Amino acid sequence: MHAGLEAPERAERAAFLKERIYLTFAALAVVLTLGSHGHVEPGDAVVTLLVTVFGTLSAVFTADLISHIVAHGRLMTAAELRHAAVTTFGALGAVALPFVFLGISALGTWPVEHALRAAAAALVASLVAIGWIAVRRIPLSWWQRLVALGAEAALGLGVIALQLLAHG
After folding, report:
1. Cβ contacts of 95 within 8 Å, gap of 6 or more
2. pTM over 0.70
């Protein structure tokens, strides 16, 4: 049993975290790809990341709509639609730092390569933070929480390794 939360609250919390994890992994893949292509202009990096972020969020939102129809046999009510939109597009906060770093780079105060490396580090840290939020209220021992967070960090690093391998 999840400490103090009822099943609907746990499902809502899971959806909130799931959207952030999807978006963070997608942004991480793009940031790593941009970093592996040699010099890229900060504006181009921002546009590429924006397109990926909104494309990913649109895909997740569409999947939520379709899965709701399948699960409930009906369209979402207005309240359910608002909740789905807030949950999905609320994930933008999880990828804010890469945009901040690229914005600093666009001002000419930081090389874009450094901004992309910092963005990748921030996204891996974001995955760990999301993992911590996910496990902090679950009745697990400290070592089980450490294993869960370590596994998530390892997956983030695995994405980095795969991207570096794919893009040489």
Report:
1. 23, 24, 27, 49, 53, 123, 126
2. yes
CB of 130 closer than 8 Å to CB of 21: yes
The ranges of the chain with pLDDT < 50 are 1-2
Beta strands in 16-158 (DSSP E): none
- Tokens 């992309």 correspond to 116
Instruction: Report how far residue 123's alpha carbon sits from residue 125's, in angstroms, rounded to the nearest whole number.
Output: 5
pLDDT at 2: 47
- b/e per residue, 100-134, with b = 16+ CB within 10 A? ebbebbbeeebebeebbebbbebbbebbebbbeeb
Q: What percent of the chain has pLDDT over 90?
A: 54
Report phi then psi at 158, rounded to 5: -65, -40
